[in-house]
Amino acid sequence: MKAIQYRTFGGPEVLEYVDLPEPEPCPGEVLIETSAIGVNFPDIRERQGVYNRAETRVGGVTLPQVGGLQVVGRVLRTGTETDGHFTGRKVMALMPKGAYAQTTVARADLIVELDEDADDIAMASLPCQGVTAFLALQVCTVLRPGESVLVHGASGGVGSLAVQIARVLGAGTVIGTASTDARRAFVRSVGADHAIAYDSPHWPESVLSLTGGKGVDVILETIGGDVFDQNFTCLGMLGRCVVIGSTRGPGEPLAPRRLMARAQTLTGVYLPSFFQRPDLVQRGLRFLKDGVDNGLIRPSVGATLPLSRTADAHGMLERREAQGVIVLDPRY
C-alpha cells in the first residue's frame, strides 16, 4: 500500500511517499480502506517533534511514523473480539496515528458508521477538529442555551466547527475572531453573530461592548501569547475559558487567585487524552454525523490534494493558506 511516512523530525520535506505492508487489525480493531483523509495541525506538530519535547508534557512520536488522525473509508475486515457488523460498512474514524495511508487500522470504539450516500471528503474533514470542539463545549464545560461564547481562530478547522456546534447547542451570542477581513467574513458565514480581529489591542473592549458590558460566558482559546491574558478582561461572571491550543505560544502564567474575583474557571482539552474515554469520543462523532445529516453542521473543505502531495498540504496549513480543512485523496 502507499503511505506517507517520516523517519526524522523536520519540515514538510521529511514526508516520504512510500510503499509499506498492509497493517493487520488487532483485537478490538478494524482494517479500513481509506477513501478520504483529513489533515490537522497536530499532524504538523508531530512531524516537527514538538510533542517529543519535555516542556509540552504530551505524548511523543516513535519514528518512523505514519501520521494522520482521521479518515473515512470502508471496513475490509476486523480483528478478533471485534463486532463483525462493521465489515463492508462505510465509517468515519478517529485514531492516534496511521491515517496517511491507503489502508489503516482504527479502534472499533473510535469509529461511527456512515450512510452510503455520505460525502466522504466532507466527513473526513470532521473527526479531529469537530470532536475537539464538541468536547470543549459539552464535556470540559457545558455551554447552556442562551449563553454567549467567544471562539478564537474561528476561521480554522476547530474554530469554524465550534461556531456551528455552539449554534446547534442554542448559544445566545456567538463571537468569532480571525486575522483578516476575508476570514472574518467566513466566520460570519458559518453562523457567528460577530467577527472581530484578535490582533487589535482593543478587541476585549469590543467583546464587552457586544455583550452589554457583561463579558462572555465561554471562551475557546486557541491563540495564546498576549491574547491568553487579555481573555480574562472580557470573560464574564462564572465564565469558563477552555484552552484548545496556543499558536502564539503559551503566554504568561496566570495567577490562580485572579479567577476568584468573578468565580471563573480555566480548563483545557487535549484530544488524545480522551482516547481512554471512547464513550465521549463516540458522543462527539455521532453528534457531528447527526448534525451533518440534519443540515445543522456544514463541513468546510479548503482543498483536496492527492496523498502523494501531503507535504504540500502541510505547507499550505502552516502558511495559513487554507480556509477550512485540507483533505487527502489516497488513490494518488
Automatic annotation (TrEMBL):
Keywords: NADP, Oxidoreductase
InterPro entries associated with the record: ADH-like_C, ADH-like_N, ER, GroES-like_sf, NAD(P)-bd_dom_sf, Quin_OxRdtase/zeta-crystal_CS
Keyword Oxidoreductase: yes
Positions of the Enoyl reductase (ER) domain: 10-328
Protein known as: Zinc-binding dehydrogenase
Lineage: Bacteria, Pseudomonadati, Pseudomonadota, Betaproteobacteria, Burkholderiales
